[in-house]
Design brief:
Layout lengths: L3 H7 L7 H8 L3 H13 L4 E4 L3 E4 L8 H6 L9 E6 L5 H10 L5 E6 L21 E10 L8 H15 L6 E3 L3 E4 L2 E13 L4 E10 L16 H4 L7 H22 L2 H8 L8 E4 L4 E8 L5 E5 L2 E5 L7 E2 L2
Helix pairs in contact: 2-3, 6-8
Bound molecules: biotin.
The site of biotin has 20 residues, from helix 5, strand 5, strand 8 and strand 9.
Amino acid sequence: MKSKALINLLSDGDVHSGEFLAAQLGVSRTAVWKQIRRAMDEGVKIETIRGRGYQLLSSVDLLDREAILAAVDNGYHSALSLVVLDEVDSTNAEVLRQVADGVSGVPVAIADCQTAGRGRRGRVWSSPRGQNLYLSIGLTFHGGFSVLDGLSLVLGVAVANALETLGASDIGLKWPNDIFLPSGKLGGILIELQGELQEGVVQVIAGIGINVHMAEAEEVDQPWSSLGNASPGINWSRNAIAGNIITAVLDAAHQFSENGFRDFHAPWQRRDIFAGMPLEARNGELHGTGEGIDEAGNYLLRTEQGIVPVRAGEISLRVVQ
Ligand code: BTN
């Protein structure tokens, strides 16, 4: 947000004169007015009170690098290369660029909005300014692509844990790693691979999108929810959510590298929203009932022929209507 410093000054909710704001920001009163207009165009509710000044009418949840770091476990601070951007095409693309540029440390990119947010299966990820969390993190694994089996489920568990720590309840997982609330999709994870940089070294870009304050979204074509809609009593902070997710993802990545998928099997299974549901897979060729996951993270269907595992690379599972 271009007018971030101005919004910060207004964030106490008091009325502030144009003169005061201009002096604090070191700009003219006309420049203050332009910034107010721009913020209002971006959806910030500000009242102009004739003869007195400006007042912020709704709370604004601004991204702040220091506040994000304050929510990250101290042990990870020195390893992180964290950028917080006003606007970017896609935070996944940003982390890919950082990796290509030889960034040192764990690259993390967070943006206030994305102009080309990408979802799984080539879909667009709706990324309105100021409302949701758009976060990508670069993770390095040793042992070739085969170590990645189960990783997408592991990341779903990590994100669910982080949100529950902050007070969210009823977080479900839709195989392999969509984040759900009973009222609809809350978030998603897009995993992109950089390839084997050297023998056996795999660079993964994990892009995480969580609906935080979003109250309307015309272009989203499936039932969705947001933390604010589901738990309006909690003062959701994108900085706190980001910091907790970064910590949970790094903890989970270490645990997964050490022990594989086994520690994540039960935490994934108890959040399975498909359990006991009538499902179809492989373009409708396979029908059965949701039976949870196996030890490698494949989804199990109870069919007339017995239990059939569905691999993550296969056609997506869907509930039979
Ligand atoms: C899905 O389709 O469910 C996955 C959505 C992933 C969206 C996130 S937002 C941050 C990161 N940047 C992107 O362009 N996509 C991911």
